[in-house]
Amino acid sequence: MNFEYDWSISKACIFRNYNGGYLHKITDFDRVDAKKLLGLDKEIATLEKNTEAFCRRKAASNALIWGARGCGKSSMVKAVFTRYLYELDTPLRVVEIDKGDLWVLPFLIDDLRTHAFCFVVYCDDLSFEARDQSYKPLKSILEGSLEKKPDNVLVYATSNRRHLVAEYENTQEIHQNDVWDELLSLSDRFGLSMGVYALGAEEYLSILASMCASVEEFEALKMPALNYAGIKGNRSGRSAQEFYRLYQNGLI
After folding, report:
1. 94 closest CA partner among 156, 27, 44
2. Which of 57, 126, 168, 233 could form a disulfide with 157 if both were Cys (CB 3.0 to 4.6 A apart)?
């Protein structure tokens, strides 16, 4: 594996599991304006405070943001990264890693702990099935081992599940206390855990209004947009954006 990287120049990268593994430089970061994420002010402020403390080298928590699909979990994390990577002068650096590559975490952490920067290892859409043992390296990093956990590394993750490991398998509920404790313990290792929920109709329409070119356009689109969300089964910022994109392209 090759973890050589110029952290003084490039602030974010993705681990690519190819040809032994390497850190891919992100040249076009997907920047998100926190002001455009309606209904998430409290959650964004909490994650910002945690990130601010981390950047100031104070005690900070690993963070898990969970909730229904399309409700802004990933956008919220990107908004915080946008601010602390590119809008403020901070020592923050970010490494994105896919759930399928968690095996590399111990080796990656060994390298990151030797640098002077503050690293967030970010994993989007994290979840595991009951017999999936690939979460073990993550759990080891979160709770530590004989070696002290590095002070300059945190883990931020998003998930559709409050409990990252599935509670059911083959339609049979797992009752044994020791197994259940094992399943819950992974989520418990995230000191900061926040749920993000589906939007109400008013919040959903507020997002639509922010995209419309005029009040007249918004009024004409309100009911079709609500119907679209009903068909999708999800009132979310993503649904509002998808609806408006379809409208602009003449598909609705």
Report:
1. 156
2. 126
